[in-house]
Design a protein that fits this description.
Elements (H helix, E strand, L loop, with lengths): L5 H9 L3 H9 L3 H9 L3 H9 L3 H10 L2 H11 L1 H10 L2 H10 L2 H10 L2 H11 L6 H4 L13 H11 L8 E5 L5 E6 H6 L16 E2 L4 H10 L4 E5 L5 E6 H19 L14 H28 L1 H6 L7 H24 L8 H30 L2 H31 L9 H24 L2
Parallel strand pairs: 3-4
Antiparallel strand pairs: 1-2, 4-5
Helix pairs in contact: 3-5, 4-6, 5-7, 6-7, 6-8, 7-9, 8-10, 14-15, 16-21, 18-20, 18-21, 19-20, 20-21
């Protein structure tokens, strides 16, 4: 584990100790050097990258974030990074091209060899967010009627340029996926036995399906390389375990950001401009401000009720807080279940039923406590209102919070968008309506 930091390198660059910077970076593993460059300011990063030897630069560039790669290309120009760009895997290359201006992206594509241009075009042909966009079209496949000797020779001949060779797709002569074979099994078996004897049923993904769900399946089942096929089961590429981990981590970061009512920053916090941070937050604040008007309108509608029983106002924060938290808990749980394929949009009735029963159980427990405390401090009437409201709010909030992610998925919207911010605002407004309706019925006001 290196003790070298981005701040130390930036300080050395400021002091003009460029030889020290180049020497220190050259002694690091490419992943460690990339992590340090990612954390540096754009100008210092460009200087540090120039100090790397050509071969080191190619490897470090491969491990940089796509945002840092795009910034380097903008700073250095396409000619200086064309070699590093050519050495990227096609899926990483496609991700980088998404970050670049169109004219720069075209220039880089033109710098590729015809073969690399073709493999990149395969990945770019799928929509963003699909597993087809994250797969690698560079793989080695074998045929079931090959013997193990022939299969190993094929892997040796073509494996150098493949993304991985440890899990080998087995296809028929129309390139339709039949199964997968382990390189270990092929190497250790009798060379004269057929590949078919070592072929296992494949766990695969369709190229058009969301990358997050395919990646989660890959991780959950510890698949080294998941085959990716088209609608006719023809093999297109593979999603490797490390790429799947990147997809899941990026999706988790985005969900956490949206649950906190903001967009994810593409650069480290200290490097992000004031405008970038503001843009990541302000849109959500506008949405929440507009949504919060509903709460104000509800309070205005029941203003007369509050005037007759001022004590009711004291419990508003408690009830809205319980409703918002209950709804957010349900939404987060179901969003996670969607991501891991534990539920689908067709399970909406089952999810609603389960969350309703959970809401009733939690509401009953909390409602009893609310009834006792409010009844002792004020009177039985207030206690009854609080107890019934908590029971009702928990039931509604859990049910709505549980089905909203499913509704979002069905209309092709990120379920995280419907998590904490919107659920909380919805529960605030509906919770107040329930609260004052019960109060008017019980207290006859």
């Amino acid at each position: 584990m290196t003790t070298l930091t981005a701040k130390a390198l930036q300080s050395a660059i400021d002091d003009g100790r460029l030889a020290f910077v180049g020497r220190e970076l050259s002694q690091l593993a490419p992943q460690d050097a990339a992590a340090i460059l990612d954390a540096m300011d754009e100008g210092d990063r460009t200087i540090a990258f120039r100090l790397l030897a050509k071969d080191d630069a190619v490897q470090v560039f491969d491990d940089l974030s796509s945002t840092a790669q795009a910034a380097l290309i903008s700073s250095l120009g396409t000619a200086e990074v064309a070699d590093a760009f050519d050495h990227l895997d096609p899926d990483d290359r496609a991700e980088l091209l998404d970050e670049l201006p169109a004219n720069v992206a075209k220039a880089l594509i033109r710098s590729l060899s015809p073969a690399e241009r073709e493999t990149t075009a395969v990945v770019l042909g799928f929509r963003r967010g699909s597993v087809g966009r994250r797969m690698s079209p560079e793989f080695v496949h074998v045929f079931p009627d090959d013997d193990c000797r022939t299969a190993i020779e094929r892997i040796k001949a073509r494996g150098r340029h493949a993304e991985t060779i440890y899990t080998v797709p087995v296809v028929d002569h129309q390139r339709r996926l039949i199964g997968v074979a382990s390189l270990r099994d092929l190497l250790l078996s009798d060379p004269d036995t057929d590949v078919a004897e070592h072929t296992k049923a494949p766990i695969f993904a369709y190229a058009a399906e969301p990358a997050e769900s395919a990646a989660q399946r890959c991780i959950d089942r510890s698949i080294m390389a998941m085959p990716v096929v088209d609608n006719e089961d023809r093999l297109l590429g593979v999603l490797t375990l490390d790429d799947a981990a990147e997809v899941v981590e990026a999706a988790r970061d985005e969900d956490e950001a949206r649950a906190g009512a903001r967009e994810m920053l593409k650069t480290p916090y200290l490097q992000a401009s004031t405008f970038a941070i503001t843009r990541a937050r302000v849109v959500w604040l506008f949405v929440l401000a507009i949504s919060a008007i509903l709460t104000v309108n509800v309070l205005e509608i029941f203003e007369g009720t509050l005037e007759q029983k001022v004590a009711l106002a004291l419990f508003i924060p408690l009830l809205t807080g319980i409703g918002g938290n209950t709804g957010s808990q349900a939404a987060t749980t179901v969003t996670r279940a969607l991501a891991t394929d534990e539920v689908t949009t067709s399970d909406v009735v089952r999810v609603a039923g389960k969350e309703m029963s959970v809401g009733v159980t939690m509401g009953a427990a909390l409602g009893v406590v609310g009834f006792l405390v409010a009844g002792l401090v004020y009177d039985i009437g207030i206690g009854t209102v609080i107890g019934l409201t908590i029971l009702s709010v928990c039931t509604v909030a859990a049910t709505v919070g549980g089905i909203m992610p499913l509704v979002a998925r069905s209309i092709h919207v990120d379920p995280a968008v419907f998590s904490t911010p919107f659920i909380s605002t919805f529960c605030d407004a509906t919770g107040l309506i329930i609260y004052f309706s019960i109060a008017k019925a019980v207290l006859q006001i």
